[in-house]
Design brief:
Number of strands of chain C: 0
Structural class of chain B: alpha+beta
Radius of gyration of chain B: 21 Å
Strand order of the largest sheet of chain B: 1-2
Number of helices of chain B: 2
Radius of gyration of chain C: 18 Å
Helix content of chain B: 40-55%
Largest sheet of chain B: 2 strands, antiparallel
Order of helices and strands of chain C: HH
Number of strands of chain B: 4
Largest sheet of chain C: none
Structural class of chain C: mainly alpha
Largest interface: A-C, 25 and 23 residues
Shape of chain B: elongated
Strand content of chain C: under 5%
Number of domains of chain B: 1
Order of helices and strands of chain B: HEEEEH
Oligomer: heterotrimer
Distance between the termini of chain B: 25 Å
Chains: A mainly alpha, B alpha+beta, C mainly alpha
Chain lengths: ~120, ~130, ~100
């Protein structure tokens, strides 16, 4: 849903925050299932949809972030969750989430300054 | 994500060193496998590492697993059930001292990559605090 | 005696309307106040759109250095504060002058 108060950038940031939160949940799910037989790791992708909708100028919320199962080779018990990758991905997602929150804060701050007085 | 490219590169390093540790542990576990002289011996596992995207900071990847010598060593064990007519059996050509030193190198490599991840995390966090 | 003051171009709520080019200041002895304000607004729009573009690039994962975005965001915020302060002072001064008894 496009922002009632805000512009395309805030829409994009909101979409990115949704995607990053979904990615964090998926990483937690993967880490919990690290020894489950037959479990394939989940990978979330929202960047592609966001990039193409920004290039077209359309509303990014038209397409939801996708969760795909990883096609990495599995171990003997059919599980293909890689603990190192999931840990690093968790750290990166935290940083990216902080960055997106910072960006939203800055946008709101600018709006508030322009509306009247200092923030 | 190339926004945090440093951490991606270090993460790929962790994967390579973890595979190396796995290979070494497999070699050590199978060091004393005995087979008859008509079979191949247990072949040692060697991880072939290569740079992903050489020249640009892409990290490392495992190109494949190379297998060691299939002939191994032929030793005298006449009491063994698999011994042939001359009392020979085939054992793998794996040197424990060599495997232990590889283990130490792989562990150091793994720890070094972890340190890179931590430093990168600190740097990015500091950048996100700009202006606060 | 009347003092003629050139009008200050209107500043609406965000998003800011596009500003036409400033009056020619090249070779002029003294740039007049309205052109200075218009130039400031142009620069403000430029910093804001740079910051927006870099924000989207950072979240899609295409930005190699996140400090580029952080610097641009800080610049945009400061430029907004500066522009609003200038506008407030200008409106204050205008009001003050209009209140002067002739």
């Amino acid at each position: 849903m496009p922002e009632p108060v805000g512009d395309a950038t805030m829409s994009a940031l909101h979409y990115a925050l949704n995607g990053l939160a979904l990615r964090q949940r998926t990483i937690a799910d993967n880490t919990a299932n690290i020894e489950t037989p037959g479990f394939l790791a989940g990978k979330v992708n929202f960047e592609d949809a966001l990039r193409s909708s920004m290039a077209d100028g359309t509303d990014p919320f038209a397409s939801a972030p996708t969760t795909a199962r990883s096609l990495e080779p599995t171990r003997t018990n059919g599980n293909n969750v890689n603990l190192d990758e999931e840990t690093i991905a968790g750290s990166e997602t935290n940083l990216a989430y902080g960055l997106a929150v910072q960006a939203m804060t800055a946008k709101f701050q600018q709006l508030r300054i322009a509306v009247g007085g200092m923030p | 994500m190339s926004t945090f490219g440093t951490m991606d590169a270090a993460s790929s390093g962790l994967v390579v060193y973890r595979k190396w540790l796995d290979a070494v542990s497999e070699n050590i576990a199978n060091m004393n496998d005995v087979r008859s002289t008509s079979d191949n011996a247990f072949q040692a596992r060697y991880v072939v590492a290569q740079a992903a995207d050489y020249g640009k900071a892409g990290g490392a990847q495992v190109a494949g697993i190379a297998l060691g010598d299939a002939k191994g060593r032929v030793v005298q064990q006449p009491d063994h059930p698999l011994a042939d007519a001359e009392g020979n059996v085939r054992v793998p050509d794996i040197d424990l001292a060599d495997q232990m030193s590889q283990l130490i190198i792989a562990q150091r490599g793994y720890q070094a990559n972890l340190a890179v991840v931590e430093r990168a995390h600190d740097a990015y966090s500091a950048a996100l605090q700009m202006g606060r | 005696m009347s003092v003629s003051i050139s009008a200050i171009s209107s500043i609406g709520a965000l998003p800011l309307p596009p500003i036409s080019g400033p009056a020619a200041t090249t070779g002029a002895v003294k740039p007049d106040f309205s052109s200075m304000v218009a130039q400031g607004l142009e620069k403000l729009q430029a910093t804001q759109s740079t910051s927006d573009n870099l924000a989207v690039k950072a979240t899609t994962g295409d930005l190699t250095d996140i400090h580029d975005y952080m610097i641009a965001a800080n610049e945009a915020t400061l430029a907004t504060q500066l522009t609003v302060a200038v506008r407030n002072k200008a409106v204050e001064a205008f009001t003050e002058i209009m209140r002067m008894q002739m």
